[in-house]
Design goal:
- By secondary structure, the protein is mostly helical.
- It is built from 16 helices and no strands.
- The termini are far apart.
């Protein structure tokens, strides 16, 4: 691989040791990008990728490791040793985690089914994947073109990343009715609000889905609600005129929607939710950093205390003799 995928690897490592420049994070990112661009690899390429990647994974920062983990999690040909190094599969195949015995409970009358609260759904969604991984998948999807998005969604169906829980059926049916009525009426504000409320998404992400020009994000949101295909097509025609006026665009998105797996949509939904947590943490850390700088500036600019009222300064005559 040092010849076919990443020429000059040894030279860059020598430069890093001699000049003191840490190029390992960049090397791992570039190495990963080059590897996932090809669907098949020779045994020699795979062996060298495993050798280089497993060595660099332990030597890079958390942000680089999270970005690489997100890319390789959706790539179907990632070697097993690399998956194990990133914690995406068990280190010992077939190993089971021992479970505690269930404590028997006294029999009681069956209670009516209770829908999970919004807080419970938020907690389950935020714990689905690491925020850095979620943010990487979120950004990678919205930066990609139509063909790349289709490939990402196809790979998400096979990824070991945890998906978001299904939207309760009663809540989903109510949301579908409201979304269709808002789309026919051209009510963007209510459509965006209902989409974010039903999928438990902040208004920023809901608006990003609605404003997405390609329409794939809207297809993912509709699949997460288990929206019937005819309803989704009517929403495209009424709510997205830039798409509805193009026969090819409607056909392409309708075909994508019919082939879109529920698991792919729910994994992407988990990434949308988790990316919000990553943004919140970054803003919080930035605010703390700014507060520390302001406090340090204020402390440095405080004037020295002058002579207190009622006290007289000592007068020196410069002659060396004491006053009489």
């Amino acid at each position: 691989m040092t010849k076919s995928l990443f020429p000059g690897f040894d030279g860059l490592m020598s430069l890093s040791r001699r000049e003191g420049v840490d190029v390992r994070p960049t090397l791992l990112r570039v190495l990963t990008d080059l590897y996932v661009q090809t669907s098949t690899h020779s045994d020699d390429e795979q062996r060298q990728f495993v050798e280089l990647a497993t060595r660099l994974i332990d030597q890079v920062d958390d942000a680089t490791r999270a970005a690489v983990k997100a890319r390789l999690a959706v790539y179907p040909q990632t070697p097993v040793p690399v998956l194990q190094k990133l914690g995406l599969v068990a280190t010992q195949e077939g190993r089971r985690v021992p479970l505690a015995r269930e404590i028997p409970a006294p029999p009681r009358a069956p209670a009516p089914a209770r829908m999970p609260t919004e807080a419970e759904q938020r907690m389950a969604a935020n714990m689905a994947m690491q925020p850095k991984e979620a943010a990487e998948i979120h950004d990678m999807f919205f930066r990609a073109g139509a063909s790349e998005r289709a490939l990402i969604l196809h790979n998400l169906a096979q990824t070991p990343l945890k998906a978001a829980p299904r939207i309760p059926t009663v809540r989903a049916k109510r949301a579908i009715q409201i979304l269709e009525m808002a789309a026919i009426a051209g009510d963007i504000e209510n459509f965006t609000f209902e989409l974010g409320d039903s999928l438990i998404l902040p208004s920023r992400v809901a608006a990003q889905i609605v404003d997405d020009e390609g329409g794939e994000a809207l297809a993912i949101a509709a699949r997460a609600l288990d929206m019937p295909s005819p309803v989704f097509q009517r929403i495209l025609l009424f709510f997205k005129p830039e798409i509805g006026t193009s026969v090819n665009a409607v056909y392409r998105l309708s075909r994508l929607y019919d082939r879109l797996a529920e698991r792919s949509a729910l994994v992407m939904l988990a990434a949308w939710r988790g990316s919000t947590l990553a943004v919140t943490r970054a803003k919080h850390q930035s605010a703390l950093h700014d507060g520390e700088r302001q406090r340090a500036r204020a402390g440095a600019s405080q004037p020295r205390p002058g002579v207190q009222p009622g006290s007289s300064p000592t007068v020196r005559t410069g002659t060396g003799s004491s006053d009489r």
